[in-house]
Amino acid sequence: MVRLPVLSRKARLAAIAAVVAVPAVALPIAFAGRDSGLPGTGGANDGSAYAFPATPDQIPDTPVRVNQVGYLPDGPKRATVISDAQQPLRWELKDKAGKVVASGASEPRGMDDSSGQNTHVVDFSSYRGTGNTYTLEVDGKASLPFDLDPKAYQQLGIDSLSFFYPQRSGIEISNDIAPGYGRKAGHTADTPNGGDTKVPCAPGSCDYTLDVTGGWYDAGDHGKYVVNGGISVAQLMSSYERSPKAAQARALHIPETGGKTPDVLDEARWELDFLLKMQVPDGEQLAGMAHHKIHDVAWTGLPTDPAADPQQRQLRPPSTAATLNLAAAAAQGARVFAQYDKAYSEKLLGAAKKAYAAAKAHPTMYAPDSDGVGGGAYGDANVSDEFYWAAAELYITTGDKQYAGDVSDSTVHKADVFDRAFDWQNTAALGRLDLATIDNKLPDRERVRESVVAGADRYLKIVSEQAYGQAYAPNGGYDWASNAQMLNNLAVVAAAFDLTGEHKYRDGVLSGMDYLFGRNALNQSYVTGYGEKASKNQHSRWYAHQLDPKLPNPPRGTLAGGPNSQLQDEVASAQLRGCKPQMCYIDDIKSWSTNELTINWNSALAYVSTFVADQT
Prior knowledge:
It is a single chain. The protein is an alpha+beta fold. The chain has a domain at 170-213 and 218-443: Glycosyltransferase (Alpha/alpha barrel), CATH 1.50.10. The protein has 16 helices and 17 strands. The protein has helices at residues 9-20, 154-162, 226-241, 244-249, 263-277, 320-336, 342-361, 384-398, 401-409, 428-437, 445-465, 482-500, 503-516, 570-575, 592-595, 599-613; strands at residues 64-65, 70-71, 78-82, 90-94, 100-105, 107-112, 117-123, 131-138, 141-142, 146-148, 199-200, 209-210, 224-225, 290-291, 293-296, 313-315, 318-319. Strands 2, 4, 5, 8, 9 and 10 form a 6-stranded mixed sheet that branches. A 4-stranded antiparallel sheet has the order 1-3-7-6, with no helix packed on it. Residues 1-48 have low confidence and may be disordered.
């Protein structure tokens, strides 16, 4: 396992070799001519953030699928085995010395429709020991190694949040803070395209320019999108709100660390400031509305450093959805920053109220699905959920009756918002979760809380029914960003634990996480640097080691989008045709439909991983 430096790298590779007999291949990471600082490669920053240990490029398959990162000693511990056997199979749990510490028989589960595999489930939850480099052997076949460690997710909570720093636009990324990832500031005035300091609108949509520097690059491209930034920054702030003391103690790898403001809020502020800049200025026809997005007028190729982007930047027209994202995120920001920076809190609240009023005045300005040249379209023609989310955040922050009325009067308020995973296009669940978990005096708040628990129960049932324990069972194929959708389902289960204290919800989150770290049909960890077989070639223009050895892979703690049955890109459609849903994934930089990285997928990972990290 590559996450924790409990053993030396040499010892760990020896442990892997004993199980799967595979040679170690060094993974060079260097950016802008810097040394990588990788553990095990002679760098000076052994064990530092972002970089991750050298991993084998090829690992022979094993039918015994486990969470390659590890399990909490007091949590559920399950594995899935691929086998045509119809009778239970004997299993043995072995410690790093090869001693059998637990044994039993598997439960045959038959054909798994999502993978097309015949499966058994092994449950070794009763074993409560701790240690590293355990293996599970079933019918004479061994799993990849894993740990039993109460701190198994502590580092992931930090890494998944520290992911956002090298995604920042408009600032030099320090190699001292992010070894191996230092780069020049992207999209500043001295970059080839003039950067984001004076960005014009799309022709015919406005006659002004805006300074929209800062914020996070949305994904593997250089675009910045208000509707995706809204859910992302909200989930970072929610990770603070659900456990302020834990968030205050969690030091991230960012320039602002060590100040009076918790690091996660310092990172959130980088995006909130950008969102404020996207608001149409006073005096203009659509004052208070927010531009939907800002990106290049044409797509750039792979790889392209942000500081070398030659394409003209352009503001796309305002939209109701973007305006409500700004209102919701700024309203939440106003309350979380209130005790740390009163003036900034007031600024955020003023922007939120202005945006909400503007959206009410222009309720049907929809971003089209056709606007996808040079950046993602992010079209959305139903904004009832965004209105609900924004009203909820404004009510929780202000207590004003007008916002309470808008919440209660919304058609969304009594609807089942957990009938599908929430995402940037379906945001009602964000409002529902905060209404349930953050103190407020909404008249029917008890019903709201019960609806969250009912949603969590639905997801727990899905976890229990799936041979691989994933909190996801769509009709038909897997959707784009299936991994993030699973995590957002788990966020609902985590909220139910916070509301009830019932450990079945905590255990459900832990079981659901197993899928992401290797207990799946591909024996694949989808988080860079976590697990022996982990994604490392996610689609990105600057984390592009697969195309240029001088460039880094994505930083440790980066989530890959995951299986996507639609196979929209050329690599996936050529190599995965006819795949079963769980099998529709390839760790290739050009497979943007299965293997992209994005801020809203990592924000979901950050929320759930910090919840799990806080359980100890």
